[in-house]
Write a structure and sequence with these properties.
The chain is mainly alpha-helical. It is 70% helix and 0% strand. The chain has a domain at 58-190: Tetracycline Repressor, domain 2.
């Protein structure tokens, strides 16, 4: 089966691969256009230039990532939902390595997102905080600041995911999945109402 991408999608895909490998300094309008099989005018038409293309690659990844994790919102609020969210987070990151690195890797330091992009990006943390607050209301998480606990859980899951991306055994390795599940369990134990 042959995949057919629109020009816009091809440009975002090619930019994402360059950004994940080389960061913003390695991305050129001409290089991305050539890789996507078009002239540079395609980038200027769709994105206004390099900055717009980088922003679109970041936003495209965040939108897809958040959609994948939001599937857990069908579950009742509580510990099981938070655990499922952690696994959805990891699964998406391992299946979309380049896109995940574009979202979070330090080589994006040269990128300055617009105010609109910052607002869109922060929605992911707000959604996670809302799930933590729901688990708190359900009695599965100790009382306190949902924002602080959400940040703590995100940092722990992100750290595990980055280690898996660079040193792990991969998304299909059951041993790695069980180890991650055990780590998530320990994190959730640490914020349970009965935790010391």
């Amino acid at each position: 089966m042959v995949e057919v991408f629109s020009l816009r999608a091809r440009l975002v895909r090619e930019a994402t691969e360059v950004l994940a490998r080389e960061g913003v300094p390695g991305l050129t309008v001409r290089g991305v256009a050539e890789a996507a099989g078009c002239s540079t005018i395609g980038i200027y038409t769709h994105f206004g230039g390099k900055q717009g293309l980088v922003e679109e690659a970041v936003l495209d990844a965040f939108v897809d990532f958040e959609g994948a994790v939001a599937a857990v919102d069908a579950l009742p609020a509580g510990r099981a939902q938070l655990a499922a969210g952690a696994h959805a987070y990891r699964d998406w990151a391992l299946a979309n390595r380049s896109r995940y690195l574009v979202m979070f890797a330090p080589q994006m330091a040269d990128f300055t997102p617009s105010d609109e992009a910052v607002e869109r990006i922060t929605r992911s943390l707000h959604s996670h905080t809302r799930r933590v607050a729901g688990a708190m209301a359900a009695g599965d998480v100790r009382a306190g600041s949902a924002e602080d606990l959400a940040y703590h859980l995100w940092a722990c899951v992100h750290g595990h995911v980055m280690l898996d991306l660079f040193y792990g055994r991969g998304a299909d390795d059951e041993a790695a999945r069980r180890a991650f599940d055990a780590a998530v369990g320990r994190m959730l134990d640490g914020i349970a109402p009965s935790a010391p």
